[in-house]
Structures are given as structure tokens and as C-alpha cells.
Amino acid sequence: MRLIGGDPYAALGVRPFINAAGARTLHGGAPVDRRVRAAMDRAADAHVDLDELMAAASRRLAGMTGAQAGVVTAGAAAGLAMAAAACIFGRDPVRVLGPRGGARQSDVLVPRGQRFAYDPAYRLAGGQIVEVSDEAELMAALPRAALIALLGHSADTGPLPFERLRRVAPETPIVVDAAAEPLALPERWTGRGADLVIYSGGKLLAGPQGTGLLLGRADLVEAAWRHAAPHLAPLRVCKVTKEEIVGLLAALDLWAARDPEAQRSHWDRTISAIAEGLPDLRPEYIAPMPGGIVPRLRLHLDPRTMIDGPTLWQRLDAGTPRVVLRELGARDWHVEIDPFCLQSDEVDKLIGAIQSAVTLPPPPTAQQWSAPPGQWRYVIADLTGTIWLKPDGTGHHSSSEMSGPARATPTGVLLATDVDGQIATYRLHVQHANGAELCGWAALGTSRFDDDGPDRSADQFGIQTFTLIRQDDE
Predict the structure, then answer these.
(1) For 98-129, what is each residue's pLDDT tens digit?
(2) Same domain (yes/no): 165, 292
(3) What proportions of the chain, in percent to the nearest 5, are helix, strand and coil?
(4) Which of these three, 201, 234, 255, is where a domain ends?
(5) How far apart are the first and last CA of the chain?
(6) Of 127, 160, 310, 395, which has the fewest beta carbons less than 10 angstroms from its beta carbon?
């Protein structure tokens, strides 16, 4: 089957799905308006100088947002790395091209409790993440600080809120990750005194999925751009194309012209239509989260059917039509629907798919391979260590490379370890038992330690075989 002139996903053997989970990178982001795609097509018809194009984009972004300057980045994470590089190295070529980690001021200060899954991007730029709990720790850390990094929706919480940080560290750049927030016009964080702020281009802004938006102080924005392609700097990996630059600017034009009330009414009507089609599932309207704009619909399942939230999520993902719901909403006896990416012609299909999935017989009882209590030696590829499990299923693990908590799960055992503020997990699923030896496959990822529900992050680093060998004689 040919890609040109046909269905590219069918040609590649990939199954599309009805997206009721919201705009996520894993799912390809938000639907891109045909007018944005048309602007990108026209941008592809000619060649331009990328520095000239980005300078023009910066002027346009400044006029739209009220920030001094702005650039389009290769995603929000690239924006974080570029922002850190600008604060650490500036744009002096000796510093830009020199070894990472050599800067006198390279620490990225993060208030405790504001670490998040994407902050390793700061390390990519040569930063060292240092957590601070209070003003005393902050003041002690400032001499080596290149910047203070905040997570937008948490920036006004805790003992070190934004205004206090700005007051006690007036000379240290503050960088705000607002990737998941709606962009206010004029932009609110730079208006409050942030030096740089990053937004996702392919989520709420519905621009090209591979884009982000970096706004702020003109000198830092200019330096950030010089660290990325087309320039010969270590962050050349952060490459954005002329089509993506034009596409995000076009999406911003639509964002600025949108009617927020009409947009919210559209989502509310979509939720109402789904609720009316599934009255037996006790639909519950969930208002947008603080700082958010998109409502959700929660459907409650009857425990007597033996079909819980994770089971329904898995059935819909495997069904035809394929439907993907919010992972975090598929817990216990409920599931959740996010209407942001739903198309009008998909609503009836979604209702029908859910009706079919909840009326199927309950799943057969699966073989329970949970690892019994005791001491086990594990082998996952070239990683070897020991697990100690208590009768209540809790425990810990240790090896020459890592250690941390462990717990028995319905299908095996879960290992977790802290890696510079991030949680790496090894979710072992037992498939065969041979006396004192258990074998199966391990999902390598970053799943939540206390949760066995659907989580696509659980295997984001792939699958690996493992062996568990009993080390005691219980």
C-alpha cells in the first residue's frame, strides 16, 4: 500500500484511535486546524534564512504577548534546555562551545516539591538541579545559581512562592515552565516579572506538535536561540523548521481570535451528548482543574459487572473502533473522558464503543503470579540485584546500581528507585513459574509506585525479559 495518495497509517499498519484522553505528546498532540496546515504548506514552497525568520517571529510574538521577545522552539522541553543554556552560558562562543559543567554558576534552583518529569532538560543544557526548601537554603545556594526554575501551576505555593523568590533574588533569572497552561494575552508570567516562560505549542495552542514557545527578556531569548539549530552549538539537536515556525504563529493567530466562552460551550455540549448516550454509567461533570480550561466527564461503573476502570480502558484500547481514554481517570470503578481532541463525528462512535465494552462478559480470572514473600535474586538483562518481600507484599530491593522500595503486584513485583528526583520503575510481569524460579517480562519506565492502573509511562523505555530466583527456603 502506498503512502502517497492513501491512508498513511493503514499503509504502515498502525491503528488510529478516537482520542478521548486529551492532547498528549504520546498521542500526537492536539488536532491541527486546516488553516494552520495550509500556512505550513505555503511556508514549504520557499526557502528563507532561519535567523531572519525567527527575528520576524520574535517581533510578532512580542507584539502579541507583551513579552520583550520570543522564539519558536522544538517543543517545550527544548525550550527548557535552551532557557537554561542561555542563563548558564549566555552567547559567548567560548562558553557556548566549551564543555558542559564547566560554568562557575550552573546550578538550577528548584523549590522542593516542584520537581517534575521534564526537568532533566535543564541537565541537558549543563545545569545541576539543586532543591531548596526555604529562604535560608535559597540564599546559601544563590552564589552558584544560574537560574531558578518553577513549575507554573505550583509557582505560587509552598514556602518559596514566585513573588517571594522575585523579591529575595532580584538578579537571578526565573524560568517558568507553563507548558500545560493556557497562554494569556498579554502573557502573565513575564508580566509578573519572570525572565523566561515556556509553553507547549502542540497542546492547548493546537499548533504543530513538535513546537514550543519561549518568551521573555530579549537578551536571554536571543541567547537561547543561538544555542539551538541552525547554529553550531551543543543544543543544535533542538531544531525547528520554517514550516513549524509559521505553523505555530498561525495557530497563535487563531488562539488570539478564539471565543473562550464558545470553546467552553462546545466542550460542554460534547460532554452532555456523551452523558445522554450513557445514562446507566452515572455520568459526572468534572470542572476544569485550577488554571485549566477543559472540563471532563467521569463515568461510574457497576462493581457487579466485574468490569472496573482499568479493564474498560484496556478493552476500548484493543477494540474497534479503537478508543483511548484518560489513563489517570481509569481507576477503581470509573473512567474519564477529556473532550479536547474529540471530533464531532466521533461522539456517537465513542458512545457505541463504550456501550459495547461494558456489556461484554467480565474478563476471565487471570493467573495470579504475584511474587511470594522472601528473598529473591533478580536478573533484568545485565542488571542483577536482590529483592526482599514481606508477607504484606511490601519490601525493598538493592543492587550495585540502584536501590529503593519494592512491592508485590497482582502480576509480579514492582521495583522503584529515585534518580535525581525522578522515579525509575521496573514492573515485573511473571509469565512462567518453575519451582523456585519465576520468569517473564519487565516494563522499564517511570510509572507510579502505588498505582497499578493504566500508565503508558510504565514501559516508555521498552520491555526486557527477567528472571527471579528464590534465595531462601520458605
Answers:
(1) 887 656 789 999 999 899 888 999 999 999 99
(2) no
(3) 35, 25, 40
(4) 255
(5) 58
(6) 310
